[in-house]
Design goal:
The chain is α/β, with parallel strands linked by helices. The protein is about 30% helix and about 20% strand. The chain has a nine-stranded mixed β-sheet, with helices on both faces. β1 and β2 form a beta hairpin. α1 crosses α6.
Length: about 200
Amino acid sequence: MPQSLSKSLLGTVDEAVVILKSGGVIAYPTEAVYGLGCDPFNESAVQALFHVKQRPIAKGVILVAANVAQVKALVELEGMPWEGDVLASWPGPVTWVLPLKHSAQKRAEGSGDKNVPDWITGGRDTVAIRVSDHPVIQAVCLAYGGPIVSTSANITEQLPATSCEEIHQIFRHEVFCVNSALGTLSQPTQIRHAETGHILRA
């Protein structure tokens, strides 16, 4: 486990993982605000998340992971010109927009299919992803065994939640909340485009 968490918090993390694996939606603390998460490869789970958030699914979402190993199969990173910059910023509060990796089998078949579904990417050939240093995100992703969705915990166009109390006020019983401290950022994480180096969100 990345940092020692209390037994009660570890129990809550375990509950969250059960919900993720059953196709449910969770809320959890991130570097600045609470986020909503689900299994990124379960389309019905992602649809449920967008339903509670009241946001169009076509926009795509960010993924968060516990370590680089959890993202290597999804994005072009190893041996790429941007690898050094990305690895230097992870784990940490920088989200990178990275080109999708196509599996060797899919490339050989010439199918053009991607390793990340369109409901995550918004139909693009890139995905926004972050290896977080927040202990709860790391614990959830490690226990879950892979990256999860990360989008601000709010109804679209409203302020994001900063506590489980606010989560319950906004979403009632539709979302399970992991109650723990936020990180130290006062605003959402920076987003950078790997291929161009452009900062998309400061």
